[in-house]
Design brief:
The protein is of the alpha+beta class. Helix content is 16%, strand content 40%. It is built from 6 helices and 22 strands.
Length: 338
């Protein structure tokens, strides 16, 4: 959060003037406080931000592209977008000190547009990862990356909205996407979106080009889960039930009445045709509050539950439908089967 600003007292005036009153700070003071928050956050994250250059083999021969990324471990693991490194014949990474390294792809997940690459460069400064469940619309958001080839460019704005969905290049909907008005351009993809403490809250991934100030980032909690699995296995196999949704709070009366294990759940925005969820009777507007015996408080939580181990295993979904508690049976299928 930006530093609080104290109100300034009016200067002493003559006995004929109105009595002194507290006045709000002027534009200079507001700018100084805002600038202090942004510059401090940028200073913390910039040493971890890298420039990624990619060579691919296209129809016309060798093609070049690139984007941004950030170190999240001291031994050279880097988070970026899947579309930045997709189909790469070679990947070169430039660190903040100008060192140029060859990178290898550890793993990628087109369903969340996230990838992990690695450089052989020990003793790096990793980014501090925050908690995307704690962010709120209106708070400061700072993006650092390499738009249009301009290295370590800093832009700032606010979190415009939470709980957006967008379709990945794989065709799968990505849930709990962060919308921000921090300016992004080609080359920002894969770079960090940070809060005023310099903690990563998202991975910048997309821009609506005809619009002004509508940009998107994958929440860092999702990125943590995906990165861990990619480092362990190199890929992610998911089970799939066929719903898109966002986290919402549940009225306290319903929480107490049904003795729910959570105070929030996943509001179902849409149910895909011929999906396990549709066959189970899940409807738009339902709120998922549990999967089997496990309470579900967020989309990220549901994604973590829907692991490879759940494929083909019948379980129950506990829903809040209007004010009623509904329990249905569901059998997840492999995500690739969608």
């Amino acid at each position: 959060m930006a530093p609080d600003l104290d109100f300034l007292s009016a200067d002493s005036v003559s006995e004929y003037a109105a009595p002194p009153q507290a006045i709000p700070p002027g534009e200079d003071e507001l700018l100084d406080a805002y600038s202090a928050a942004v510059t401090s956050a940028a200073a913390r994250i910039t040493p971890s931000v890298v420039n990624i250059e990619v060579k691919t083999q296209g129809r016309r021969g060798e093609e070049r592209g690139g984007g941004s990324g950030f170190l999240f471990t001291p031994d050279g693991f880097i988070l970026t977008n899947c579309h930045v490194v997709a189909g790469a014949a070679s990947i070169d990474v430039t660190l903040i000190d100008g060192t140029r390294c060859t990178a290898t792809v550890v793993g990628s997940d087109p369903h969340t547009d996230l990838a992990v690459i690695r450089v052989s460069a020990p003793n790096q400064i990793p980014a501090r990862l925050g908690d995307s469940d704690l962010i709120r619309p209106g708070q400061i958001a700072i993006a650092v990356g390499n738009p249009l080839g301009f290295q370590t460019t800093v832009t700032a704005g606010v979190i415009s909205a939470l709980g957006r969905t967008m379709r990945a290049q794989s065709g799968r909907l990505i849930d709990s996407v962060i919308q921000t008005d921090a300016a992004l351009n080609p080359g920002n993809s894969g770079g960090p979106l940070v809060n005023s403490r310099g903690e990563v809250i998202g991975v910048n991934t997309a821009v609506i080009r005809p619009a002004q100030g509508i940009c998107f980032a994958i929440g860092v909690n999702m990125a943590k889960f995906v990165a861990a699995r990619l480092i362990r296995d190199g890929y992610i196999t998911r089970s799939y039930i066929g719903v898109a949704g966002q986290g919402v709070s549940i009225h306290r009366r319903l929480v107490r009445f049904y003795n729910l294990g959570v105070e929030s759940g996943v509001l179902v925005h849409s149910v895909e045709k011929k999906s396990p969820a549709e066959r189970s009777g899940v409807r738009e507007g339902d709120i998922i509050v549990a999967y089997g015996e496990t309470p579900v408080s967020s989309v990220d939580h549901l994604h973590r539950i829907l692991s490879e181990e759940q494929i083909g295993r019948e379980s129950t979904l506990t829903l809040i439908r209007s004010t009623e508690k509904v329990i249905v049976s569901v059998v997840p299928v492999p995500a690739a089967a969608q």
